[in-house]
UniProtKB/TrEMBL annotation:
SUPFAM superfamilies: Purine and uridine phosphorylases. Gene3D superfamilies: Nucleoside phosphorylase domain. One of its GO terms (cellular component) is cytosol. Residues 2-227 form the Nucleoside phosphorylase domain. GO terms for biological process: L-methionine salvage from methylthioadenosine; L-methionine salvage from S-adenosylmethionine; nucleoside catabolic process. Keywords: Amino-acid biosynthesis, Glycosidase, Hydrolase, Methionine biosynthesis. NCBIfam families: MTA_SAH-Nsdase, PRK05584.1. Pathway: Amino-acid biosynthesis; L-methionine biosynthesis via salvage pathway; S-methyl-5-thio-alpha-D-ribose 1-phosphate from S-methyl-5'-thioadenosine (hydrolase route): step 1/2. The keyword ATP-binding does not apply. Its EC number is 3.2.2.9. It comes from Qiania dongpingensis. This is adenosylhomocysteine nucleosidase.
Length: 233
């Protein structure tokens, strides 16, 4: 069973429309849409925006649906000059940039008493996604790297520069690291897929509405193809 999480309704509606044998169960005010896509058993759900929603959603997928992989689709702000609006970022690892326990001797971004600064995404999922994206989205570029998450929409040049300098991430958004942490704690392979909707700077609030639909179309095409080609033990 593959769990697919989107932060917004626009991200999951197209996937739901392509599913067969669908049943819906509501938990924690979230609609878990179970069915089949490309011959595979999947659960598609809109988590809502932010880390708390994303973490709760992932735990429900683990507890009630026993998923053996979690794929999180969505959009993000670019933190790298070569990554343009519409391009895709696939996570190698994820971390929460708004965690600060420096006073206790931890580096910024590390959750106290967790073993590592970041959570590692599944390499097999990332490799499969990269091949699928090159096939279904040949007009855009695909990048692998660190995804940063925090409960804030980054639209400030100074904040962007701090994120780049401190963490070296490729993009910033609001859910991925929470999904990564919950998946890690449950021993579930995960991948964060992000289409770039803005540059995470002073132009972000202007770019985001114009390019949101385009970014979502790229992630939907990728996930549909990926589900069909993914082999899970």
């Amino acid at each position: 069973m593959i769990g697919i999480i989107g932060a917004m309704e626009e991200e999951v509606n197209q996937l739901k429309a392509a599913m067969e044998e669908v049943s819906v169960e509501t938990k924690a005010s979230m609609d878990f849409c179970r069915g089949r896509l490309s011959g595979k058993d999947i659960v598609v759900v809109r988590s809502g925006i932010g880390k708390v929603n994303a973490g709760i959603c992932t735990q429900i997928l683990a507890d009630l649906y026993s998923v053996n992989a979690v794929i999180n689709t969505g959009i993000a702000g670019s933190l790298h000059a070569q990554i343009d609006i519409g391009d895709i970022v696939l996570s190698t690892d994820v971390l929460q940039h708004d965690v600060d326990a420096v006073a206790f001797g931890y580096p910024v971004g590390q959750i106290p008493r967790m073993e590592s600064l970041s959570f590692q995404a599944d390499r097999h999922l990332a490799d499969c996604a990269e091949k699928c994206c090159q096939r279904v989205n040949p007009d855009i570029k695909t990048f692998k790297g660190r995804v940063l998450s925090g409960d804030q929409f980054v639209a400030d040049k100074e904040k962007k520069e701090w994120l780049i300098k401190t963490f070296g991430g490729l993009c910033t958004e609001m859910e991925g690291a929470a999904i990564g942490q919950a998946s890690y704690l449950n021993g579930i392979p995960f991948l964060i897929v992000r289409a770039i909707s803005d540059k995470a700077d002073d132009s972000a609030s202007m770019d985001y509405p114009a390019f949101e639909a385009k970014a979502i179309s790229h992630t939907v095409a990728l996930v549909k193809d990926m589900v069909g080609h993914l082999e899970l033990v």
